[in-house]
Amino acid sequence: xxxxxxxxxxxxxxxxxxxxxxxxxxxxxxxxxxxxxxxxxxxxxxxxxxxxxxxxxxxxxxxxxxxxxxxxxxxxxxxxxxxxxxxxxxxxxxxxxxxxxxxxxxxxxxxxxxxxxxxxxxxxxxxxxxxxxxxxxxxxxxxxxxxxxxxxxxxxxxxxxxxxxxxxxxxxxxxxxxxxxxxxxxxxxxxxxxxxxxxxxxxxxxxxx
Length: 209
Ligand code: ATP
Ligand code: MG
Fold this sequence. Notes:
Blueprint (H helix, E strand, L loop, with lengths): L9 E7 L6 H13 L4 E6 L14 H12 L5 E3 L2 H5 L5 H11 L4 E7 H6 L6 H7 L1 E5 L16 E4 L8 H9 L10 H10 L14
Parallel strand pairs: 1-2, 1-4, 2-3, 4-5, 5-6
Helix pairs in contact: 2-8, 4-6
The structure holds adenosine-5'-triphosphate and magnesium ion.
């Protein structure tokens, strides 16, 4: 191997509520990891999401553990508790500061789906977000991927295999007694079942889904 200065670490960050984590998140992270030759992609489950304050969200520990289960088999995927442990409302700017402090000198790539990218100018301190990280926006069915209004040199757009999956749909399926097999990893299906997540009060669990 050639001698010389070690290569700058390249770290991907995938923030999300992950309620539950599904194959749309995992494919997006895997595609960006490969395309940008990232050393690691860190999944960061939120504490309280500013845009989801009026919605019921599962306890952070459940979301964290499902994310660990879903990512455990990929040597380049890890999960961070920075947002959960900081608590309160999660702002991406704080996530980036915390990760940057843990990986001094690393190049950070913040991964978002098209829907999240479209909102980014409404996020707290978005100008500083662009200073701390390169944004990577990925395609998501039902949403238009555009970098309009965003600083061109700080945003990359990437097409990824279309996964028409959302956590909202997964929760509704479970609540209606429907299957989430193959939408989320097997271990996550079993975790949801084990802890009775997303079940409508009074609905008995079925044996087929
Ligand atoms: P919810 O329906 O609860 O909002 P979600 O499926 O949108 O859940 P989030 O946890 O809100 O998942 O999303 C985390 C990140 O993953 C966001 O940047 C979002 O755009 C991206 N993402 C989620 N699902 C997909 C998908 N199917 N394809 C590409 N990106 C996705
Ligand atoms: Mg969402």
